[in-house]
Amino acid sequence: MKLGVEHVPEVRKQKIRSLTKYWLQPVLTLLALSLPLQGADKVSYQLFWFSMIGLLTCLEILIPARPAWQETFNDKLLVLGLVWIASMTGDFFEAIFDESLFVWLGSISETAGLDIWPNQWPVLAQVLLLFFAYEFVNYWYHRGAHRWNWLWKASGHGTHHAFKHLTAINTMANHPLEALFLMLPRLLVGFLLGGEEVGLSVASLFSVTVFMAHCNLELNSKVIGWVLTTNRYHIHHHSMVREESNTNYGCACIFWDRMFGTFSDADTKEAGIGKTQPSYAELFLMPFEEPKASEVAPGERQASPTSA
């Protein structure tokens, strides 16, 4: 069953398309930044996240930037199944680390006087500092996963790249093993700097940006794209062409790509790791066996000059 909204007048679609292009990402970003200033609790953040995902999904059905990327209801259910497994795995690891590794690192940091977090700063400044620091670590992990075959396999990062059609829901479609690697920024930044008090606020800003970066909508990248990742840049990172995929590593913050020379602003013809999308069994096996059709995975024979 193909999802569609043929009954909506084209004139109304054009108005929604225009508003979405220029205002959706700025407005959602400002809302995410305003939550910590309003003293929002965890429930408020969760309501914001779910509302945002629902809004993006509805807009993708109504005004998709690439109509060919619209998925059937069954396809969405399969992706949601992978998302659920990855999320449950991440929650499992986080629960274990919260009671062990994070506590141990916190005690070391406190004993050594490493917690240098500027608690006296305004809340918004603390959120932005932690966001940029978090994304700095994430940038280098992400770049390494595309540079070294062992890290690409160990993290199962290729699973996230395997989808031919990107949507907001694909944001969380990762291999369960990658949950361990996606905790690296929290481990390192939290250990060296602190800042856990505003961690939920940073997660909100990060979530808005990465969901927008994967969505199948036409967005404007000219202003906000100087600092934050937009879907034009991130879809290019998901390109089936290896040289194009080895750019724009910032999942939420494109600033580090601009600084370290891996930024690219170009059209993207096709996403995925090859001409066909792997089966779901192949997606789960990717840490152990790369699909034969893969053209993006790093390796000595495949590495290109831009992948360094």
**Range of strand content:** under 5%
End-to-end CA span = 43 Å
- Written as H for each helix and E for each strand, in order along the chain, the element string is HHHHHHHHHHHHHH
Rg, nearest Å: 19 Å
* Main sheet record: none
User: Helix- and strand-based class?
Assistant: mainly alpha
**What is the number of strand segments?**
0
Low-confidence stretches: 300-308
Backbone shape: globular
Mean pLDDT: 88
Keyword list:
308 residues; mainly alpha; 14 helices; 57% helix; disordered C terminus
Report on this structure.
By secondary structure, the protein is mostly helical. The protein has helices spanning 10-37, 42-62, 73-99, 101-112, 123-147, 149-155, 157-161, 178-181, 184-192, 199-214, 231-237, 242-245, 255-260, 280-285. The chain is globular and about 60 Å long.
